[in-house]
Specification:
With 207 residues, this protein is an alpha+beta fold. The chain has a single domain, classed as Hypothetical Protein Pfu-838710-001, CATH 2.40.320.10. The chain has five helices and twelve strands. Strands 1, 2, 3, 4, 5, 6, 7, 8, 9, 10, 11 and 12 form a twelve-stranded antiparallel sheet that branches. The longest helix is centred in the last third of the chain and has 12 residues.
Length: 207
């Protein structure tokens, strides 16, 4: 389980500054690494996984696909725990019953036994990754996302910053890091996951 903090970025200038800044108070940022990512979110036609509190992401890899099942979260805080389960597929298989045995497969089959999944959202993303250090110790990872959501032929775009702390011993730095970001740029917390934001955009509850 990892701890994450997310922020909504609406100013292109701030998005650029987060890619180029070297220091923020006591925190140092590594050189950025850029990756293009294509994801598809899967569910049944009636969205039974969503109704059960899950989202299912299929990410294209060099060889095959990575399926990630995530538990939807609630709350307005920037920092939240993230529960997820993964399974790797050698080829695109729409029916979870035919996936390799895994916790992700087992949880999905409890909700939609022997059902085929279909794409409900396509995400094209540019991810800029930077490591954040305090002294000589790397304490967090910053992922900047420029996201293009495609739903039923319609496109919408948004930008976010996600901080990831995988080591529980480093969680003590998170509050200070979050406060530094908010002080520097008045960033607003993003309580929604990218998937939840796409759902909200679909229903017209956000832009």
């Amino acid at each position: 389980m990892t701890t994450e903090a997310k922020f909504r970025i609406t100013d292109p200038g701030i998005f650029w500054s987060l890619q180029t800044i070297d220091y923020l108070g006591v925190f140092a940022f590594s050189d950025p690494k850029i990756l293009e990512i294509h994801d598809a979110y899967l569910d049944t036609k009636k969205r039974k996984l969503l109704a059960a509190g899950y989202n299912c992401r299929r990410r294209e890899q060099v060889k095959g696909f990575l399926i990630t099942l995530s538990k939807l979260r609630s709350g307005e805080d920037a920092a939240q725990k993230h529960q997820k389960w993964e399974v790797t597929l050698k080829k695109n298989i729409n029916s979870p019953v035919d996936w390799p045995k895994s916790k992700a497969r087992s949880r999905i089959l409890k909700v939609v036994p022997e059902k085929k999944l279909q794409v409900i959202f396509d995400f094209n993303q540019t991810r800029i990754t930077r490591q954040i250090s305090n002294g000589k110790q790397t304490i967090a990872q910053a992922n900047l996302y420029n996201v293009l959501v495609i739903n039923k032929g319609k496109e919408q775009q948004f930008k976010i910053l996600k901080l990831i702390i995988a080591n529980p011993n480093h969680e003590k730095y998170l509050d200070s890091l979050v406060q530094s970001l908010k002080t520097k740029w008045s960033l607003k917390s993003e309580p929604l996951s990218k998937f939840e934001r796409a759902i909200a955009m679909e229903s017209g509850k956000t832009t």
